[in-house]
Design goal:
Blueprint (H helix, E strand, L loop, with lengths): L4 H18 L22 H9 L14 H6 L1 H18 L6
Amino acid sequence: MVTYSNSILAWWRNYFSQLVIVHGVSDLRQIEIHRSEPLVPEPSAFEVEMATEKPKIHKSPGSDQIPGKLLKSGGRTIHSKIHKHINSTWNKQELPEE
């Protein structure tokens, strides 16, 4: 069992070095860090439209207090506004307070 902090750090350094070598990198300084594209693309207008068509008309509103009937009857205008809001939130990577 490794109990000293220097020994623990050395153990982890060795462990991760071995992982990197397995993947064809012999020197950790050779690794370049690249910012990749998001794993999940931002929601499309079609996805938003499909989601706003799902709620039942005669059901109680959810925690957002928006009735399904309003979402369905809003048509293209409401779908566009919701899509714009969702993508804005998505790109900020921050949930609004409201």
